[in-house]
TrEMBL record:
<dbReference type="InterPro" id="IPR029063">
    <property type="entry name" value="SAM-dependent_MTases_sf"/>
</dbReference>
<protein>
    <submittedName>
        <fullName>Cephalosporin hydroxylase</fullName>
    </submittedName>
</protein>
Length: 128
């Protein structure tokens, strides 16, 4: 997608297993998302330009990922929680503590109908 749109951006993946078919444009960090705060430290995150589009699709440590990245996000950044039906409790607990700073972008969650997405109420943006 980035290539076809000719976007000048960084695509960074994190996983425990190094992918065998990694595209040359993708940077990769091998690590366990259960320890996200050690993989992408706050100090490291300072070097990435905004706006960010963070996509969580690991199905583990949802609260940890949300808490970690939300502290470094700025207005206009997005975090998307994929396959979120089974993650609603974790997301809801995080959202109840962060509703002043974050909102669900219903333009995208409801684009094809109310929550017609795998990211049910979890296309989240940082408020200005």
């Amino acid at each position: 997608m980035v290539r076809s749109l000719r976007l000048d951006t960084i695509v960074l993946g994190v996983d425990r297993v190094y992918p065998s078919d990694l595209e040359k444009e993708v940077q990769f960090i091998q690590g366990d998302v259960n320890n996200i705060e050690h993989i992408l430290t706050y100090e490291n995150l300072k070097f990435f330009e905004h706006p960010w589009l963070i996509i969580e699709d690991a199905h583990i440590n949802i609260s940890g990922v949300l808490n970690h990245f939300s502290k470094s996000m700025v207005a206009g950044d997005y975090i998307i929680i994929e396959d979120s039906l089974t993650k609603q409790e974790d997301v809801g607990q995080w959202a109840s503590k962060n509703e002043q700073d974050f909102t669900v972008d219903t333009y995208y969650t409801d684009f094809f109908g109310i929550n017609a997405t795998s990211a049910v109420n979890t296309i989240i943006t940082k408020r200005s």
